[in-house]
Amino acid sequence: MKQYKEIPSILSRLKNLPSSLYYRLRGEPPLTDATITKEFIGWLVSRPDPTILEIGCNDGSNTLWFLEVFDSPRIFCFEPDPRAASRSRRKIGDWPEISFYECAIGSANGEETFYMSGGAADEEMPEGWDYSGSIRKPKNHLIVHPWCTFEKTITVETKRLDTWCQENATDRIDFMWMDVQGAEIDVIRGGRNALRNTLFLYTEYSNKELYEGQLTLKQLLKELPDFEVVVKYSDDILLRNKNEPNL
User: Fold this and answer.
1) pLDDT tens digit string along 91-123?
2) Residue ranges per domain, the chain?
3) pLDDT of amino acid 27
4) Per CATH, which fold does 38-47+63-241 belong to?
């Protein structure tokens, strides 16, 4: 396990951090202006060979984080957008630690419509912005980010997380990175058993219903009663399984 000698002292208390009074009274934790770092993830998981699920890996930038901070991780990446999947494969290359799946994790096994994001094409993304595609139809995203278009749809394979775990004999998840653009409830509904065996969950949230049916943060936390808040970021939240599954 790679060692990090300059972790701020406040981090040493996070593993035992209880839900705050604010969270108990209002249903939401206090906000931090910090951003999550690969060093923090390495310290938090604190084992050399974690099982990591990156649901919505896009171009693989965060996948490289996991390769950098862990000695021998098992990383499972999921990305339904073929443009992002292609960029991810080019950026990451061939690593025995990584398994890649070009599908969406959802509430059912089968196929669903995927709303491809576009606009703001550049040299890196000549076909347009591909970070905001979702199996959930865009709603307020069109108002909040009017430059981001959704002019094309494709059909993608969907897989329940519980089904995938069963098929791949995965009964332990040390860290789950979930970036699914409003489809958090779909992952949760299809992965109740998997989540019971997940220690840390890092996911996006929005209270603006950017996509149809997207949960607010309060609703999201209600769907995850076994988890407590470690850190609330501006658009993401880091959760820990209160039941301390035997991982």
Assistant:
1) 998 899 999 999 999 999 999 999 999 998 888
2) 38-47+63-241
3) 55
4) Rossmann fold (3.40.50)
